[in-house]
Design a protein that fits this description.
By secondary structure, this protein is α/β, with parallel strands linked by helices. Among the domains are: 72 residues, Ubiquitin-like (UB roll), CATH 3.10.20; 127 residues, Rossmann fold (3-Layer(aba) Sandwich). The chain is 48% helix and 20% strand. The chain is built from twelve helices and eleven strands. Strands 5-4-6-7-8-9-10-11 form an eight-stranded mixed β-sheet. Strands 1-3-2 form a three-stranded mixed β-sheet, with helices on one face. Strand 4 and strand 5 form a beta hairpin. Helix 5 crosses helix 7.
């Protein structure tokens, strides 16, 4: 309080009168109740200010950092797109001029009778040349190999690594031998006779004799493949013995000494009865299946041939 206030307060007390003004008001001191009310009002005002600040729209300055981040992301995506568009042709050019675009090696698998070198030579594949044009022409390559090499049954050209080819082949099996001039040439399951004569026949393969027509050979092999494994293993030789009235006639020589006369067209259906018939034979016999089925000993045929020869000599 100011000196004059203090003096006035002292004077009023001496007179016994109460001052018309409150010292607390003058001195800036409020009562507890007034302070509580004032504090409540202040808190209310602060809360209102806080709520207003939360709901108030953000200024451009507050949104500026997020806007910069968004623009940076957009620019980065565009930059990556441009780099990718430029990089792809560059990689293609580098691959084209590099050794990876040239055929480095050709490998042959699955071959047995045909040499790998022969297959590669007839494939027309060239190492050191562009790999993709040769790969796109692989069907022509496969056909060229099959045409040049009759032993090849199937062939497939594939890429096994970045610049290497693999030629996978399968071969026709040898199913018979063609006897001609004391030489034996292999016959494939396709009916093709390979010009690779040998002095000695391979064991386990039947020998075809007196055949000159390719179509007849194929017909016989087709019928032969329909026979059971037991009957095929029992055949040692198949001879073409046509007559004027029958150009399909075969004489089949069996390993057990018997002979079977049968038509090519009936070979598969009638030869299935051979095991049962042979079981009842007492000696080596001829089983004639040309018309029906009947048998007679081979010795009778030999005696008849001898008698014919003696008669001819006597007449001379």
């Amino acid at each position: 309080m100011t000196p004059w206030q203090k003096e006035n307060l002292r004077y009023q007390k001496e007179k016994g009168d109460q001052p018309v003004w409150s010292p607390s008001v003058i001195s800036g001191i409020h009562s507890d109740e007034e302070q509580s009310e004032d504090q409540t009002e202040e808190n209310h005002e602060e809360g209102a200010e806080t709520e207003d600040s939360e709901h108030a729209p953000r200024s451009f300055a507050d949104r500026l950092p997020n806007l910069k981040k968004y623009r940076n992301r957009v620019l980065l995506r565009r930059l990556l797109l441009i780099i990718g568009v430029l990089l792809i042709p560059l990689l293609f050019i580098l691959y084209y001029v590099s050794p990876l675009s040239k055929l480095a090696d050709v490998k042959v698998v699955g071959n047995d009778q045909v040499s790998a070198q022969s297959i590669i030579e007839h494939s027309d594949l060239t190492t050191g040349e562009e790999i993709w044009p040769q790969y796109f022409d692989r069907e022509q390559t496969e056909q060229a190999i099959k045409k040049a090499l009759p032993r090849v049954k199937n062939v497939q050209v594939t890429i096994t690594s970045l610049n290497q080819f693999e030629i996978r082949v399968s071969e026709y099996q040898e199913v018979a031998l063609l006897a001609s001039d004391n030489h034996y040439s292999p016959i494939l399951e396709s009916g093709v006779v390979i010009n690779e004569p040998s002095d000695q026949p391979l064991e386990g393969l039947p020998i075809l004799e007196s055949f000159s027509d390719q179509s007849k050979i194929k017909e016989v092999l087709t019928a032969y493949q329909k026979l059971s494994q037991e009957i095929r293993e029992g055949i040692s030789q198949i001879k073409y013995t046509p007559r004027d009235s029958n150009d399909e006639l075969l004489t089949i020589y069996m390993n057990d000494g018997n002979q079977v006369i049968v038509n090519i067209s009936n070979m598969a259906s009638q030869m299935q009865y051979y095991p049962q018939i042979a079981k009842d034979l007492k000696e080596d016999s001829i089983i004639d299946m040309e018309v029906g089925i009947f048998t007679y000993p081979i010795s009778n045929t030999n005696d008849s041939d001898s008698a014919t020869e003696q008669s001819t000599e006597g007449d001379s």
